[in-house]
Specification:
- There is one protein chain.
- 25% of the residues lie in helices and 23% in strands.
- By secondary structure, the chain is of the alpha/beta class.
- It has two domains: 3-219, 3-Layer(aba) Sandwich (Rossmann fold), CATH 3.40.50; 227-339, Rossmann fold, CATH 3.40.50.
- Strands 1-5-2-6-8-11-12-15-16 form a nine-stranded mixed beta sheet, sandwiched between helices. It has a four-stranded parallel beta sheet with strand order 18-19-20-21, with helices on both faces.
- Helix 2 (75-87) crosses helix 3, helix 3 runs parallel beside helix 8 and helix 5 (238-245) packs parallel to helix 6 (267-278).
Length: 352
């Protein structure tokens, strides 16, 4: 994958230098002479957003030479973005990633685990309508993301974590889910409050924002993609259930359960899970509910999961569970099972 680099200087002294990574997505679409939506060259951003020149910021822009739809995002794209941020880390005060909405929560979650000891903002944003459209949400989303990425208090970044800004709300990246495809409020973080809300001014929820790390940035890039999601539903057959658990070479399964972590008590469900765990597979229990937490053992329908060796995913989103599990398996191998319940980047609540 090739990157194109553009430098955009501010008018007058710059109060901060930001790195913008343009990956593609709805944000950067414009109509060609035939009326077809095509990606625009990000070097022409000032034609669409002349107010960027008045922010008092300087930018380094890297864009994917061939912008991609976020449905095509793979771990290799996360690696490219994380490595670029690490390489440019000391030269920039903050980072903004323009990304398609469909897999934005996966990318935000992955980056939160890849960029260990982060002390600068990494803000992902995008749009539901192309920037070329009169009613586009792209303009406000980008301008406010740039403001957040450059915001400092007492010389330190106000939001030193990976987050998503969309429709006037700033959300923790690894707590976010895409919940809407036809309205502007595309994202929600059901188990965690917004980090900020933007109105006439940006009101930061300082109590909810992670504290900056005093340790050097550590880049982690190894992923183990051999995992699966097994979503329970009434009527799921033993054949379907077992076909997932018995996939050759599979390292781990995310079991999407009901409510607070409940599953059918059918003998073939429990025996299947026990066998998979005995064979070395890690099974992680994530609730299908957008809010709440997994409480294994609270009801009889989850007590057998505890006995079988299923690990509680607490209140992680599926997106956070997928990316965290892939990274832990890739970086730490067999130790992943011990680390999966540890709060690494604010992705879960550690209950006493």
């Amino acid at each position: 994958m090739n990157l194109k680099r553009v430098v955009l200087e501010s008018h007058g002294p710059a109060r901060a230098r930001l790195l913008i990574i343009y990956t593609g997505g709805t944000f950067g679409m414009t109509t060609d002479k035939d009326g077809v939506l095509v990606p625009f060259d990000f070097a022409s951003i000032l034609e669409h957003l002349p107010t960027v020149k008045n922010l008092g910021l300087a930018f380094t822009v890297f864009s994917f030479e061939t912008p991609i739809d976020s449905s095509n995002v793979e771990p290799e794209h996360w690696q490219l973005m994380a490595r670029l941020i690490a390489e440019q880390y000391d030269a920039h005060d903050g980072f903004v990633i323009l990304h398609g909405t469909d897999t934005m929560a996966y990318t935000a979650s992955a980056l939160s685990f890849m960029l260990e000891n982060l002390s600068k903002p990494v803000v992902l944003t995008g749009a539901q309508l192309p920037i070329s459209e009169p009613r586009s949400d792209a303009r406000e989303n980008l301008i406010t993301s740039l403001e957040i990425a450059s915001a400092k208090q007492n010389g330190q970044a106000v939001v030193p974590e990976v987050c998503i800004y969309f429709d006037y709300e700033l959300l923790r990246g690894n707590r976010s889910k895409k919940v809407e495809s036809m309205q502007f409020d595309a994202f929600d973080s059901g188990n965690y409050p917004p980090l900020a809300k933007a109105g006439v001014k940006i009101n930061y929820n300082h109590a909810a924002i992670r504290k900056p790390s005093n340790q050097p940035l550590v880049l982690r890039t190894r992923f183990e993609p051999r995992i699966a999601i097994l979503k329970l539903f009434p009527g799921i057959s033993e054949q379907v259930f077992q076909s997932v658990l018995r996939i050759e070479g599979l390292k781990a399964v995310i079991l999407e359960t009901y409510g607070s972590g409940n599953a059918p008590t059918a003998l073939w469900v429990i025996k299947g899970l026990e066998q998979a765990i005995r064979n070395g597979k890690l099974v992680l229990n994530i609730s299908q509910c957008p809010g709440g937490t997994v409480l294994q053992g609270r009801y009889a329908t989850s007590r057998d999961l505890v006995k079988a060796g299923v690990i509680s995913g607490v209140d992680m989103t599926t997106e956070a569970a997928v990316t965290k599990l892939m990274l832990l398996l890739g970086e730490f191998g067999d130790l992943a099972g011990q680390l999966i319940q540890k709060n690494l980047a604010g992705e879960l609540t550690e209950f006493e």
